[in-house]
Amino acid sequence: MESLGSVISIIHIAAAIALLNGIFTTFGQSKVACQAIESIARQPEAANDIRSAMFVGLAMCETSGIYGLLVAIIMLFANPLVDTLVNLIS
């Protein structure tokens, strides 16, 4: 039974690492918005192009954060490795 506890603790550590993606996503989104505002200030005539590229970049960043959350939830609640290990132990 000791190996089951080890696997579960490793799963929790891996889920925490996957959730760190959300923190780094926040920093990435702030960098995208900051650069877009700076670019619009320097070239106001290109504001529409810059704004559309900014929204695409923000969508990509947000998708990355959501994928990290999804991976963490799968590892915590629907991990098939735990079921396999329980079947091997039994």
Model description:
With 90 residues, the chain is mainly alpha-helical. It has one domain (2-81): F1FO ATP Synthase (Up-down Bundle). It has helices at residues 2-42, 47-77, 80-89. The longest helix has 41 residues, at 2-42. It is rod-shaped and about 70 Å long.
Question: How would you concisely characterize the structure shown here?
Answer:
With 90 residues, the chain is mainly α.
Q: What is the element layout, followed by pairings?
A:
Elements: H1 2-42, H2 47-77, H3 80-89
Helix pairs in contact: 1-2
Keywords:
mainly alpha; F1FO ATP Synthase; rod-shaped; 90 residues; 91% helix; single chain
Q: Tell me the CATH topology.
A: F1FO ATP Synthase
Largest sheet: none
- By DSSP (H or I, 4+ residues per run), the number of helices equals 3
The average pLDDT value, as a whole number, equals 88
Whole-angstrom Rg:
20 Å
Task: Give the overall shape.
Answer: rod-shaped
What percent of the residues sit in helical stretches (DSSP H or I)? over 70%
Structural class by sheet pairing and helices: mainly alpha
Order of H and E elements:
HHH
CATH C-level label: Mainly Alpha
Provide the number of structural domains: 1
What is the strand tally?
0
Low-confidence segments, given as residue ranges, are: none
State the CATH superfamily name: F1F0 ATP synthase subunit C
Termini separation comes to 10 Å
